[in-house]
Every structure is written in C-alpha cells, then in structure tokens.
Specification:
This protein is of the alpha+beta class. It folds into two domains: about 1-115, no CATH class; about 215-400, Phosphatidylinositol 3-kinase Catalytic Subunit, Chain A, Domain 5, CATH 1.10.1070. About 30% of the residues lie in helices and about 15% in strands. The protein has 14 helices and 13 strands. The protein has helices at about 50-60, 70-75, 80-85, 105-110, 120-125, 170-185, 220, 235-245, 250-265, 320-325, 345-350, 355, 360-385, 390-400, and strands at about 1-5, 10-15, 25-30, 40-45, 45, 95-100, 150-155, 155-160, 190-195, 200-205, 215-220, 275-280, 285-290. The strands form four sheets. It has a four-stranded antiparallel β-sheet with strand order 3-2-1-6, with helices on one face. The two termini are about 45 Å apart.
Length: about 400
Amino acid sequence: MKYLLMHQNFEVAEIDIDMDDGRLCGMGKVFCAERIPVGIAVHDGTPDFDMLKSWWMHRSIPISRSGIRKALEVLEMQTSQELLTKCMGLSLSDQYWVKPQDSDLQWEDVNFFDNEFSEDVGNILFGDKPNGTLNMLSPEGASDGWLKKKWKIIDGKRCLVKGGSSFYQEPFNEVIAYRISKRLGIAHIPYTLSYEGKNRMPVSVCEDFVTRDTELIPAGFISKVLPMEQGENKYAHFVRCCEHLGVPRVQESLDELLVLDYLIGNQDRHAGNFGVLRDVKTLTYLGFSPIYDCGTSLRYDTPTVYIEPDLDIESQPFLHFHNEQIQFVQHPEVFDLEKLAGIEEEIAEIFNDDRAAAYIDAARQEKILAVITKRIQMLTELLEQQPWETEELEQGMKME
C-alpha cells in the first residue's frame, strides 16, 4: 500500500508498505531530501533504500522485547512492524509518521503530543488481557528497548512506564541515577517509582522530554552521518559527527554521560539510549537530551551473593570497560564528587517501603549501596590521577 512518509506536515517521500507484515517494500518520489531521517545516506536527492528500510525496522518494537511475541499473538499480527503501521508510525520521540497517500489527515489531527491515545496496546505489552474492542492508535508501536514499557497520560502529561527483568532492579536504578545526577548538576530526566498490576510490580515513571516542536535523534543515527576515518576511535568519530551537524556542548555533555555511567556501572549505554535534540521546524540541533535509561546498572542482573563493588564493569558505547572509557572525559575538574556525601542514606530511603522490600531484600540493598560507595571512591581516585595514562588508553582505542 502506498503511503507518504511525513515529518509533521512536511511531505518527505512516497513509500510502499507491505500490508501483510508491515515491512517497507518500495520508495517513490522524494519531496524533501533534507527531512529524510538523520543517518540515512542521500545521493543526488535520493535516500539509500536499504538504510531507509533499516530505519523503519529500528523504529518498531524489537523482537527481543519481553512479552512481544505473546502480545503480537493477542493482537493477531505477524511482526512488530505491522503494529507500527497500524499506529501510523507515530511516536512520542520524534515527529515522523506515515499516512495513506490519498488521505487528507494533518499532523494536528493525529499526533500524540496534543491528542489522546489508547492504552490498550501498552496494557497488552504488560501482559494484561484485552477487554473488548482494541484501539490500536497508540505510541507503543514506535517504542524500542527490551524491557516491558508503555506510555500513559498522567495528569495530562505523557509519561513512560517501564518495568524490570529478573531481579526487578531496573526501576530502582532509574531513580538512583536521577538522584546522583541531581546532586552533581548533571542534566537527567526525573524518575519516580511506582507499582503496577496485581503483583504490584515495581516500575519507573518519567515524563516525556520531547515536545511537539522537538525530536530525539539517537546517537546511533548521528554516527552514520560521516564515515569513520582510518585509525579513528568511536569516541572521536561520534564527536566529529556531532560537530559536523552543529550540535552544541558535545564534549561537556559526553563528560556528564561518562561520569554518571561510571558511577552507576551502566552496562548498556548503547547508541540507541542517548542522543541529541533537534528543532523540527528549523532542523537546528539544540544539544544533547537529558540523560535517561540507566536501569541496566549497579549489577542489576547479578545474583546478590555474586555482587562485588570493585569489579571493572563492562561498558558501552565507546570502549569495553569503564576504567578505560572514563578517560575520554575532557574536563574532570568540573565534577565535585564531594556533593555525593551521604548519598547512600538518600538512596536507602528509596527502599524503605514494604513494596520495595518485596523485590529488593535487605541483603541486595546492602550490596547496591556498597557498589555506589566503592565506585564514588574509585572515581575520586581516578580523577586525582590526572593527566590520564594516554598510552594505555590509546592501546584500548586501537583494539576497537
């Protein structure tokens, strides 16, 4: 079926979508090459079709999402891209969408920033049974990540509700990361803790930081703007891509990201869970988004008895270990770690609740606090060792 790829009310290109599985299967006339999604190569005004297909697939729920296979079965769909098409590709992270070529729909009629949306799909993704006729019009089809999540309208605000995995620690980690960032003056989305369902499962809740006038461009797409040069490491390449696009405060923002991720031992800061914000009308880059998605931290997936606070934890996205990656920080002197004095007591209050204790018992709480204390100490010692041992760092970069 023929659709128009839209960017708000701007017509971008004609596309064909296979209605059997929701996959992008063809492309026609391009109307506005400058509004082709970032990271897709454009030659003589024509976007690379394989890259456009990959972008559309990336936009849909990954098959690794917890509960997605069961949800698709309930929804009687074959692929998550079919769900994405049913939702017109609409998202609460950017302003792209698709509409039938003969439709007179306008952005103002359908966008989820101004219009209400159904929570049916989100509830099914959380394992709830459908009740009556389903309304598919929701932003769920364009949400990424492997943990259960759903969008809800809470007090008129668009909020993302996200669950945990085996030890249910991720929602608590989101709140902890926010509390640490707040003390250090690092731009971070505020997170709160809540409980969902009959088992009162812990979930994190945060308000959408994207507005109807802005959009998030994930780092993975920024990195595709320019080819990597010979001998260039991932960090230098990403910085060069950002500077090429005119993104402000690149190194300062990356410093904040790397410092926070070191402190919490974030194991999954991949190129899809950080990025930059862009003005939709002018296509001007506004800077990095506030930090979000820090759940995969603090030994979240490790059985309590095996949690050790002083291990060199694996990292992403630039090098394999935090003790190496932290040396990309350009201005360590701006981080006053003394502001974290007593943070353990503040974090302990997060667990001071019978509902929290049902998931994170006293032994695990103690281990989490020990990890935080130790990593603050380790980072303090590292920052005092300036200048960095560049020879060791360069070796690590060459291995990339």
